[in-house]
Amino acid sequence: MGKTPVKTTKKRTTKKVDNIDFNSLLSKSIITDEKPETTFVAKGQYKEALELLEDAEACQLTPMLIGPPGTGKTMLARSFSYSRGRDFEWLTLDESTKPVHLTGAFDPSETLKKGFVKEAFLAGPLTRVMVTGGIFLANELNRATEYTQNSFLEPLEERSLVLQKLGRIRAHPDFFMICAANPGDMAGTHRISEALKDRIKIWIKLDYPSRSVEMEIIKNNLPQTRLSSEYLDLTHKLIDATRKGREIERPASIRSAIAIAKLAGRKMENDKDLTYGQFKKIAKRVLSGGIKPRPGVDAEVSISKIINQVVR
Ligand SMILES: Nc1ncnc2c1ncn2[C@@H]1O[C@H](COP(=O)(O)OP(=O)(O)O)[C@@H](O)[C@H]1O
Ligand SMILES: [Mg+2]
Question: Among the atoms of ligand 1, which is closest to the Cα of residue 41?
Fold first, then answer.
């Protein structure tokens, strides 16, 4: 039996590189502008959220974006900052994040040469935006321990920050912090400390977007791939069904929808056709890691049930 040839839509021209090439590629790949890779769809809940971020910034109140994974919290904060033409730094927090990851630390070799001076200090992302008047996104804030969460109290309350050995810095008047978190009842998250909660003043809830907005987001993410409107519609129906299913704890996110649409579009382009059977297989592969069933529910069985209900 002969081997089936592997088909590709695009030929990759990338070659192996030696070390000298690597360094020049590294220089080229450094991001100098924070433009998001895909166009932000500022409609529906996202339009409202952008307006609330503007209000929060104008009144110097700290906002919190709260919503399940993949509902666009990070992208919203990035797009907001980009539209303001501001410095933007972000850190995704978790259990192992320490205050020093936010504030920065002395470079050991420079400190040996020069001592504890500004020149030997490597500022962390929070310190950098406090000094330059940029925007800081504390991403997944409720994954950090209370100890680390508390290092935001002084910057938010007093607009200042202590840097050990250097002294206390005052924040630039334009410094603005946005927080983002997944809802607290999800596994793997700490509570937001009461002290910090008291300093967050605008709670912006994001949920899975409406059908029309989500369809536009999916299309924006398929610039090179064409997928027929029938399969685009089925992709959305599938994703939506996981959000309504009682057996599912964490349903499919926009990311899963984008992945299904990309794979289906590629198959359609390569084969000039896409059968329901092939589409189901693609959906199954993406969803088997893209959803979390409730305890005691068999993921495979649950996914197959949903797929067979939607794609007949
Ligand atoms: N309003 C939007 N416009 C365009 N793309 C979006 C939008 N919201 C979400 N997305 C897409 O969904 C993906 C997940 O969004 P992300 O901001 O990472 O979610 P979260 O931070 O809530 O987990 C993004 O990479 C982007 O492709
Ligand atoms: Mg995120």
Answer: 3
Residues 6+ apart with CB under 8 A from 121: 104, 105, 106, 107, 163, 166
| Domain coordinates in residue numbering, the chain | 34-205, 211-310
- In the reported structure, the alpha carbon of residue 253 is separated from the centroid of ligand 1 by a whole-number distance in angstroms of 9
- Closest Cα to atom 9 of ligand 1: 72
Q: Read off the pLDDT of residues 211-251 as tens digits, 9 standing for 90 and up.
A: 999 999 999 998 777 889 999 999 999 999 999 988 899 99
Q: Which residues pair with 89 in a beta bridge?
A: 136
User: Of the ranges 3-7, 109-113, 144-148, which one carries the lowest mean pLDDT score?
Assistant: 3-7
Which H or E run includes 122? strand 121-123
CATH of 34-205, one of 3.60.15.10, 3.90.1310.10, 3.30.470.20, 3.40.50.300: 3.40.50.300
CA 254 to ligand 1: nearest atom: 12
Ligand 2 centroid–CA 254 distance in Å is: 12
Interaxial angle between packed helices 254-271 and 229-244, expressed in degrees from 0 to 180 and rounded to the nearest 10? 150
Quick one: how far is CA 302 from the chain centroid? 27
Residue 43 has, within 13 A of its CA and on its CB side, a CA count of 11
Taking the model in full, what pTM does it have? Answer: 0.88
Using alpha carbons only, how large is the chain's radius of gyration in Å? 23
Considering the domain delimited by 211-310, tell me its CATH architecture: Orthogonal Bundle (1.10)
**pLDDT above 60 for 264:** yes
